[in-house]
Amino acid sequence: MDLGLNGKVAVVSGGSSGIGLAITRDLVREGATVSIAGRDAGRLAKARDEIAADLGAEVGTRVLDLRDTGAARAWVDDTAAEHGAVNIVVSNAGGPPAGPTGAFGPDGYRDAVDLGMISHIGFVQAALPHLQRAGWGRILIVASETIRDIIPKYALSAIARSGLAAYAKTLVHELGPGDVTVNVLAPGYTATDALLSGLDGDVEAETVRIAEQADIPLGRVARPEEVAAAGTFLLSARASFVTGTVQVVDGGRSLGM
């Protein structure tokens, strides 16, 4: 299936591992030019080298923290200057720590909102003029299933990220007619480094245990590439009439309509 991404230029934050890296690989396979950013220079270099070896393509890299809006804007501007445009924005950042509402004071909430909402908005705002100038754009904000279905032990995630759905839906109406779409990807339990690093013993058995405890009907956690597949479709030309949505990828766990 041709997704219509050949020749498009993409910036992917958090692109050195997990879901961000899986989306990057999909975009490269589809012929897009991609620049990835993250906080760890070593992980970025590793991702760049693996993509070059596996897919025969070069990706750009930029070391930055998405909370640094000025650095994010400079990255987008530099990418547009180098490649002539920016068409695709994948805003992906780490999540806040787990815990119930009472486990955190006001500063903890401020930090969570800064990372889980404000950093995404700042990045999108930096890139939006380039997408509008190009006349074709796709914005994908990677959040969490906690937007749609509250998980009490991940209180900060739900509180900090829920505003992203409102932002995306509001932005769609402000953009009006054209070919720039905005969607939110809301993954559930996924076998990323963040999840796997906290496991002891047999990893496969532990992820099955997590799935059982979380009551995931499919009986396992997601693979990053499975979540990425949904995200990549939302970034494609074929998804031209899909905008303002929250796409949950959770193996059927959530019961909300």
Automatic annotation (TrEMBL):
Alphabetized InterPro entries for the sequence: NAD(P)-bd_dom_sf, SDR, SDR_fam
Recorded superkingdom: Bacteria
Name of a matching Pfam family: adh_short_C2
Similarity comment: Belongs to the short-chain dehydrogenases/reductases (SDR) family.
Name recorded for this polypeptide: SDR family oxidoreductase
Taxonomic path: Bacteria, Bacillati, Actinomycetota, Actinomycetes, Streptosporangiales
